[in-house]
Design a protein that fits this description.
The protein has a single domain (16-110), classed as Rossmann fold, CATH 3.40.50.150. It is 26% helix and 14% strand. It has helices at 26-34, 49-61, 100-110, and strands at residues 16-20, 41-46, 70-72, 87-90. The longest helix has 13 residues, at 49-61. Bound molecules: S-adenosylmethionine. S-adenosylmethionine binds at residues 21-23, 26-27, 46-48, 51, 74-76, 91-93, 96-97.
């Protein structure tokens, strides 16, 4: 998970957060619900049209359209401008990306300058 560095633990009201590999948008919606005064918008990105279709239904049912736009895109070629995001989340996703290093470069590119970030992930080693 990439988060703003320094003293801020979570984006403030005007911030734009990206939820990469959003799946059916559960984390994107939870992020908004957990902190109603937090991010202005959480953009969910996933390359699976089917996952996004299901996510779109959930977003509509939760009346979060506009605050949780879902966009089809690849984590290694994000459909976002450089320096356009205040925070990036990715849950149970980096392990599925074929080229995780390239995804990290993309995260770095879309984050605003000065945003510090970390990525941690659990991965099970295959048994020999
Ligand atoms: C295990 S799901 C996690 C979904 C969600 N983050 C969650 O925690 O519920 C992994 C998701 O990553 C997406 N994904 C995998 N590789 C991707 C890539 N290169 N670009 C965008 N999405 C990707 C898959 O389509 C899938 O929806």
């Amino acid at each position: 998970m990439a988060t703003p560095g320094g003293a801020r633990a979570w984006p403030d009201g005007n911030d734009r957060v990206i939820d990469l590999c959003t799946g059916t948008a559960d984390l994107a919606m939870a992020a908004l619900k957990a902190r109603p005064t937090g991010a202005q918008q959480v953009v969910g990105i996933d390359f699976s049209a089917e996952m996004l279709r299901v996510g779109q239904r959930k977003v509509r049912a939760a009346a979060l359209e506009g605050r949780v736009p879902l966009v089809r895109g690849d984590a290694v070629r994000l459909p976002l401008g450089s320096a356009s995001a205040d925070a990036v989340m990715i849950a149970f996703g980096i392990r599925n990306v074929v080229d995780p290093l390239e995804a990290c470069r993309e995260i770095q590119r879309v984050l605003r300058p000065g945003v510090d970030w970390r990525c941690s992930s659990l991965r099970c080693r295959q048994r020999p």
